[in-house]
Amino acid sequence: MKLHPWGIVLDFISILSIFVMACFVGYYVVWSVTPALHTPLMAVTNAISSVIIVGALVAAAEAGSPAAKWLGLAGVVLASINIFGGFAVTERMLAMYKKKEK
């Protein structure tokens, strides 16, 4: 069965539109979170990033080309930075609720 070239373009446009909508929804959801719920939200974000690291490691291990292995490494590095930043922000948020020592 021969795939029509427009089919590839339409698939890409569908995936791109879902990505753009997810960006808008994510933006509005994150900015409307109250400060009291920010720390649990960051904890969930860190958990999602850890799943991304596992997926990037599996993708890099199964990759057939060197470019795919480098993209898997880039995914691991970026998700690691995201996790570290999330823990740093969570630590600062929790420090705001501690009583100050005199």
Describe the structure.
Its EC number is 7.1.1.1. It is found in: Cell inner membrane. It catalyses: NAD(+) + NADPH + H(+)(in) = NADH + NADP(+) + H(+)(out). The chain is mostly helical. The protein has one domain (12-96). 84% of the residues lie in helices and 0% in strands. It is built from three helices and no strands. Helix 2 runs antiparallel to helix 3 (66-96). The radius of gyration is 19 Å and the shape is flat. The N and C termini lie far apart (76 Å). The model has no long low-confidence stretch (mean pLDDT 80).
N- to C-terminal distance = 76 Å
Count of separate structural domains: 1
User: How many strand units?
Assistant: 0
User: Helical content, roughly?
Assistant: over 70%
Largest sheet: none
What would you report as the Rg, rounded to the nearest angstrom? 19 Å
Mean pLDDT, as a whole number?
Answer: 80
- Helices and strands, in order, run as HHH
Strand proportion: under 5%
Question: Unreliable segments (pLDDT under 50, ≥5 consecutive)?
Answer: none
Total helical elements: 3
What is the molecular shape?
A: flat
Class based on secondary structure composition and strand pairing: mainly alpha
GO biological process, one term: NADPH regeneration
EC number: 7.1.1.1
Protein name: proton-translocating NAD(P)(+) transhydrogenase
GO molecular function: NADP binding; oxidoreductase activity; proton-translocating NAD(P)+ transhydrogenase activity
